[in-house]
Amino acid sequence: MPNDATPRLLLDNGESAIGANITATQAGMALSLALPAGRKLERAVLAIGAASDAEIATKPTVSSDAGALTGTADARWVSVDWGTELAVVAVKIDGAGPEKLRTGMRVKLYSNGNWMPLPPLDTLMLGAEQRFPAVAASRLIAEMLVENVVDEKNTGVLIPGSIKARAASMRATAQPCHVALAVGDDPPFFTYPGPLPLAPASVTGLARVANRYLADHPRATHIPMRLIAAADADVKVASFEAALVPLPGERESGAAADARASLPVGSEESGSGSAAGARTPLPVRSEELYLTPATPETVEAARLCDAQHSPAQCFEPLPSGKLLSRLELYLRATTTKPVQGEVSVHLDWGGVPAPEPLARAPLEQAAPAAAGWVSLPLPQTLALSAGKWWLVCSVTAGELAWYVTAPTPATGPTLSRVGQGPWMPVNMPAPGSSAQVQLWVTAAAAA
């Protein structure tokens, strides 16, 4: 049993929230953070995930510009409206188009008051169920597309047209959408946009807002919190761990010091955000090579890294007890201009890198004669065992080729984006490949 000095995350009935499935609501399900009076948090690490991604029953309202879907009237668009934000994973629209012409549909989703295209591709086939990664929405509209004919020849190009639509349906999962956490009646300090994945997502900023509440309520022993979602859905509290600011004369345990040092320097959870950014350095520990490419040092294909193109490589969680300490990327500068940029480590954010990095490693390189391994020590070791994570290569000057090879079980998809645009799958060259990376790790200190 935890002692009275151990911060605890509790349900509204006083039971521990760790491992519990909690129904998040629009108004917010009550939680509380219990701690001794007069104490503040040095750090707080909370991870939450969807309790289930099983498909759920839905009864959407279906209509079109021609009225009801009867299969006899020409419809230029079809609306499927289920009224509340759900994690949509499939859509199907049946209908008959002009004879001997291809047909399709262009899908737009309505979420949080905005219309947006369906990622990653908004143009889909008619007549067969079209599945895609879960995306939050409360309604969709499908514009009907028909093959263009020029000089009595089929062009293969789909343009807006009409079909005789006869049925429409969608599928959704139990994943909660737009999950947020708030303290008291304040606006949420954390929001996970879109469907919450099964893999736990880290909640950032908890120590900061909790201490702000304690500054206003110095004798409080419970900090009220609300778990919010766009519609009622179950959220699993995967883990919670926190430590109090030591009292004068108290000494931190080795395990607590190591956990704090593995967080980003300057973050509110790390407790190291002093004006000078100083932190007592960790003892040097021996490194071991955790991951190497399936076929290293191949140069058949590469991802472009320049001021407009930033590739990202996904990785599976590191084993418990292993801390990421150093990266090696197989790179080549492709111009004579010196390269400047960085490689950053990000948590997973619904299938893409989270906006804010956990750590950055500066990347500076003169133009080499050939491809080679570039070693990038991290400013602090990182514990990355809670869920998937990403490396992002960002270049501000010069141009790099980041070579790819066959994927391994420890690597996930490769994405890329242009400027600050959306992250998109990389389809060429070498689709399905992984960027060449070697990961070096150290062992976490024993408790």
Explained architecture:
This protein is mainly beta and 447 residues long. It contains 2 helices and 31 strands. It has helices spanning 206-216, 254-261, and strands at residues 8-11, 21-24, 29-34, 41-50, 55-56, 61-64, 77-96, 103-111, 114-117, 123-124, 130-150, 153-160, 164-173, 177-183, 190-195, 201-203, 222-228, 233-244, 288-291, 302-305, 309-315, 322-333, 339-347, 359-365, 372-383, 389-397, 400-405, 411-418, 424-425, 434-435, 437-443.
Which key features would you list for this structure?
2 helices; 447 residues; flat; nine-stranded antiparallel beta sheet; seven-stranded antiparallel beta sheet; mainly beta
Summarize the structure.
This protein is mainly beta.
Q: How is the secondary structure organized here?
A:
Blueprint (H helix, E strand, L loop, with lengths): L7 E4 L9 E4 L4 E6 L6 E10 L4 E2 L4 E4 L12 E20 L6 E9 L2 E4 L5 E2 L5 E21 L2 E8 L3 E10 L3 E7 L6 E6 L5 E3 L2 H11 L5 E7 L4 E12 L9 H8 L26 E4 L10 E4 L3 E7 L6 E12 L5 E9 L11 E7 L6 E12 L5 E9 L2 E6 L5 E8 L5 E2 L8 E2 L1 E7 L4
Antiparallel strand pairs: 1-3, 2-18, 3-17, 4-16, 4-18, 5-13, 6-7, 7-11, 7-13, 8-9, 8-10, 8-11, 11-12, 14-15, 14-17, 19-31, 20-27, 21-26, 21-28, 22-25, 22-27, 22-31, 23-24, 23-26, 27-30, 28-29
